[in-house]
Hints:
The chain is extended. The protein is of the alpha+beta class. Among the domains are: about 25-90, no CATH class; about 285-395, no CATH class; about 400-580, Galactose-binding domain-like (Jelly Rolls, Sandwich), CATH 2.60.120. The protein has 22 helices and 15 strands. The protein has helices at about 25-35, 45-55, 60-75, 110-115, 140-145, 145-155, 155-160, 170-185, 195-210, 210-225, 230-235, 245-255, 260-265, 275-280, 290-300, 310-315, 320-325, 335, 345-355, 355-360, 365-380, 410-415, and strands at about 40, 85-90, 125, 130-135, 165, 400, 435-440, 465, 470-480, 485-495, 505-510, 515-520, 535, 550-555, 570-580. Helices cover about 35% and strands about 15% of the residues.
Amino acid sequence: MGASGKFCFTSSNPDVIQLPGVTYPIFHAFLQYIYTGQxxxxxxxxxxxxxxxxxxxxxxxxxxxxxxxxxxxxxKKLFDxxxxxxxxHPCSLPQRFTVFPFGLPIDVQRLKQWLSTGEYSDxxxxxxxxxxxxxxxxxxxxxxxxxxxxxxxxxxxxxNSSKICLRDTSVDAFTEMLHFMYSxxxxxxxxxxxxxxxxxxxxxxxxxxxxxxxxxxxxTILECLSEDTVCSILxxxxxxxxxxxxxxxxxxxxxxxxxxxxTVNTDFVxxxxxxxxxxLQCPNLTVTSEERILDAILLWVMEASDLLGWEAVDTILxxxxxxxxxxxxxxxxxxxxxxxxxxxxxxxxxxKLEKSNLSIQIPVFEELVMEAxxxxxxxxxxxxxxxxxxxxxxQSTFKEFQxxxxxxxxxxxxxxxxxxxxxxxxxPVLSKKITVTASSPASRFTDPKxxxxxxxxxxxFAGPRVEDGKNCSWWMVDIGEDHQLMCxxxxxxxxxxxxxxxxxxxxxxxxxxxxxNLRVHDNDQTICKPGQYVSWPVNGPTALFPFRFFRVVLxxxxxxxxxxxxxxxxFLELYGYFHM
Length: 580
């Protein structure tokens, strides 16, 4: 009641409010509105209900009564003595009408103040090892949590106690849950450990059965889900049935970035078998090669702390056994190895696997490799293989384009010029397979098609522009809406000028707006001659991210005095794993 208006409780009898002259129907409608957000009352009693609301300053009810009375005055035909009028509190967030305190005429700021000051509190909450963490109100706790309701009403000692002591509970997470109970909103401050705290709150919401908070946590996690957080989230939520949709979203995210999630670190080895198996069986699993999947399975069954390839594991098996190396997860290989599509592996790799210790010591591995060898040699579909996924190419796979030498024909921009291997090369800008743009308008010496023409240009540059208050120049390539590239190498060629770059970056983007640095060059002296080819690898985790847009961007002046911000290159080529 105190959160809905101004109720003056006398010091002599704080539990009693005197209401002389107020009839029961009026008082009942008044309380019903406060506690439920809606009520019914006879039309002729609207004035009395408004007066009672004025007395205690329940402002939403005052306004609604006056609005209804005014409508009756304007149109007396609406007035019907003896008919009941329905009054409902307008919810500030209609989509959350059923969540306390939305849908009720309550001053949320006043509620939050009471939580902060402990005013009107009737229960103290202690967390073992931290002392008292809050002075709360049993009614509000009971509205949200059935466990608290039972605790306060079961007739046991807790019902009469004014103290609650909790164990094995995060203070920060419980504080956030209390704040949600009083405000109906999750209000986390951005911080480096926000993701960890959010997961603790989610676990607490599941433990106490606060479903709206759990849903809000899931929604927030989905909004900030990334390749770096997906493993830690899956480890927490896989045991929570009500988080199934979030779990499936995480599995899709993992499968889409399988190379990254299994190469940056070994956190994925802590996933349970069911979750890891679901990821491996995801229809849209995107991976650069089946060898990557084999490596990941071996790391998982080993519960490895270091990143190893299958060859390193095979070497360990020279002096060990599968029982020792894989331990309790040894039985899982019978279920996981068949998820590797061995028939899609190159014959050279299969021959290595055939002679490996893995084949010698693990029967199911040997059987799968032999099956793949027969398929590879015969080049014919095995009986029933149309139904066997091991013989089917994945929907989402990458084709490798490996850098051989400067100016070679192995890059993806050259490949686009052949309509992806369908005919002789033509300029991919002219055939509209890719789009090239520059930081300055197109002109005789800023010609997008010239950058991929494979013909030396004496003068070819992108002029400067101001972005975020800084000078920059760039050439950008869009490889197409349905295409992505994990770039692991790139080649440039200086035009005929002596405006040599010294500080620049190769960047990738999914939308052409938000950019990720793939390789940054700071005072790089490599380019020193007109017409010079130069190439560099892209290393680290960013080489495992697929992007649609790529650009070479000048982040510092060139060696030219006359045009220090002209980006003077006449050729660009990209290499890596290409998704068509």
